[in-house]
């Protein structure tokens, strides 16, 4: 009698199909997240190899500026336009350009050619920046779990950056040459190219017209501005925190490095969970406000208090790591909610990336000015003020609608 019931269906096959589908989705998300890992790994390997590259401070600064400068121009917008027109082809081209730039830069470093180093840095910055835009745009198209997808992207980026920074210098010391870690970083970039070519979500992305009605949307610019403030504040803290811990709080170099490295590691662990929580609950705004307030409080304590215990310092670092994990994930997911279905998603994320890169450059310059004059309270206060500005923009965007 049970087999004649039209509502009856045997459960084991349904469970098997569901599990296979979840595995396929997870594998595709992993490939999508691996698209930009190579660039993060290569850039942070350069940071780790700085003492061994025989580059002066000016040349190393010029190399970092060459890599980061394209992101603060119209390059992400052009990459977004190319992605909207031909998603899969554009993703492969972006990954190929990033790999080519890394190869030119590595060759220049090994051969001692400053011109090749700078040219490769610019090419790497163009390809990697556009690839980040493409991966975020694709992740935003996942209807049920876009915040989780943005969190996984952030986790992979932090893991790639940590791996490049942690492995490059020991590998160079062990082998006696910087060519070995540079070759390993290029191998990771090759894997990223393979991920861009095989991710099924890239092949399924729809072509869209290049119309941009969101440019006139106040909500879009408020969320993009909040993301830029958060990105600039936390990234500058990540870059200078080790030196601040040594110079302001008198910790030894090893302890300061361990505490500073905990920020990207904790972010890598927490970001996917933050995205999953945002997808399953209607508490994204409350969670973002809480993370913003904790981050502001932590940076304010570091700015105002020159004498803090190790427990207090670890608590502040933990609050910053929590904000670093939660806020970019939630804000990027919220950015997609400000767009109508006909919008050019690639251009929207390209404009957001360009704004964040510009905020990062300006915050870096201002922080370096205070840091160079040893005005540590002003330097950390700058980051707290930038985060407070992001909090104000986010609250205003929340007041305009969900």
Report on this model:
This protein is mostly helical and 402 residues long. Helix content is 81%, strand content 0%. The protein has 15 helices and no strands. It is globular and about 50 Å long. The relative contact order is 0.14.
Topology diagram in text:
Elements: H1 11-34, H2 37-49, H3 57-68, H4 75-85, H5 87-111, H6 114-139, H7 146-175, H8 179-198, H9 200-204, H10 218-247, H11 253-280, H12 284-304, H13 310-337, H14 345-372, H15 376-400
Helix pairs in contact: 1-7, 1-8, 2-7, 2-8, 3-6, 4-5, 4-6, 4-14, 5-6, 5-8, 6-14, 7-8, 7-11, 7-13, 10-11, 10-13, 10-14, 10-15, 11-13, 12-13, 12-15, 14-15
Short structural description:
The protein is mostly helical and 402 residues long. Helices cover 81% and strands 0% of the residues.
Overall geometry comes to: globular
Binned, the helix content reads over 70%
How far apart the termini lie comes to 50 Å
pLDDT averaged over residues: 81
Descriptors:
402 residues, mainly alpha, 15 helices, globular, disordered N terminus
């Amino acid at each position: 009698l049970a087999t004649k019931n039209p509502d009856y269906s045997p459960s084991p096959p349904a469970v098997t199909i569901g599990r296979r589908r979840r595995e396929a989705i997870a594998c595709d998300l992993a490939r999508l997240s691996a698209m930009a890992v190579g660039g993060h790994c290569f850039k942070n390997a350069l940071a780790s190899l700085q003492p061994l590259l025989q580059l002066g401070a000016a040349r190393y600064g010029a190399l970092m500026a060459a890599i980061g400068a394209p992101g603060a121009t119209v390059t992400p917008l052009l990459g977004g336009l190319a992605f909207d027109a031909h998603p899969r082809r554009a993703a492969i081209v972006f990954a190929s350009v990033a790999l080519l730039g890394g190869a030119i830069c590595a060759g220049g470093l090994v051969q001692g050619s400053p011109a090749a180093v700078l040219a490769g840095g610019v090419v790497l910055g163009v390809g990697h920046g556009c690839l980040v835009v493409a991966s975020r745009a694709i992740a935003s198209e996942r209807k049920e779990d876009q915040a989780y997808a943005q969190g996984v992207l952030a986790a992979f980026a932090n893991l790639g950056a940590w791996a490049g920074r942690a492995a490059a210098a020991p590998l160079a010391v062990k082998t006696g040459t910087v060519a070995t870690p540079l070759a390993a970083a290029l191998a990771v970039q090759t894997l990223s190219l393979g991920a861009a070519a095989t991710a099924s979500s890239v092949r399924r992305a729809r072509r869209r017209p290049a119309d941009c009605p969101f440019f006139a949307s106040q909500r879009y610019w408020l969320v993009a501005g909040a993301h830029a403030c958060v990105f600039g504040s936390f990234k500058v803290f990540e870059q200078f925190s080790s030196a601040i811990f040594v110079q302001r709080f008198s910790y030894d170099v090893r302890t300061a490095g361990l505490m500073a490295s905990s920020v990207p590691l904790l972010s890598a662990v927490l970001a996917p969970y933050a995205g999953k929580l945002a997808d399953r609950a209607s508490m994204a705004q409350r969670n973002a406000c809480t993370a913003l307030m904790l981050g502001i409080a932590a940076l304010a304590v570091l700015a105002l208090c020159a004498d803090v215990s190790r427990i207090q310092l670890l608590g502040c670092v933990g609050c910053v790591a929590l904000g670093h994990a939660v806020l970019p994930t939630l804000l990027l997911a919220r950015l997609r909610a400000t767009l109508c279905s006909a919008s050019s998603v690639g251009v929207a994320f390209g404009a957001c990336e360009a704004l964040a890169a510009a905020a990062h450059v300006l915050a870096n310059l201002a922080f370096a000015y205070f840091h160079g004059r040893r005005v540590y309270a002003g330097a950390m206060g700058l980051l707290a003020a930038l985060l407070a500005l992001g909090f104000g923009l986010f609250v205003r965007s929340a007041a305009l609608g969900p």
